[in-house]
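I have been asked to look over a protein record a colleague put together. Thanks in advance; the entry in question is below.
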Amino acid sequence: MADVLNGSPARPVTDQSTSELVQQATEQLSRLVRDEITLAKAELAEKAKHAGIGAGLFGGGAAFAFYGVGALFATLIIVLDLFLPLWLAALIVTVVLFATAAVLALLGKRQVSKAVPPEPSAAMASAKADVDEVKHAIKTRSLA
């Protein structure tokens, strides 16, 4: 079995010098930290994407609600002025606009909820598990 770090044949830990063990631990810790940072960046990018989509959908829902209010006022004017089926058509348009606004708002809420909380929970859990594993290894090694 070849040593992963320097390509030389693997030697039992008891045959390695302290400086070799410290060098290996330093290299492994450095690689571990880089990997955890990469994981955190990827997780934050995904959450930011969901937050952006959710904000856009909320904006779309607000725009449709704005048009719905305009249509509602137009409907009230027509109803008061004519009392003819024209008001029914305007009312139908108003209901459709508000229904569209509601759907967009719910979709936006779902997207934003996927982005909350903004911390990289998977990366943090992985880092905590790594720290616990190192603590356990140090404790086991010091008892031996």
Notes: Residues 18-118 form one domain.
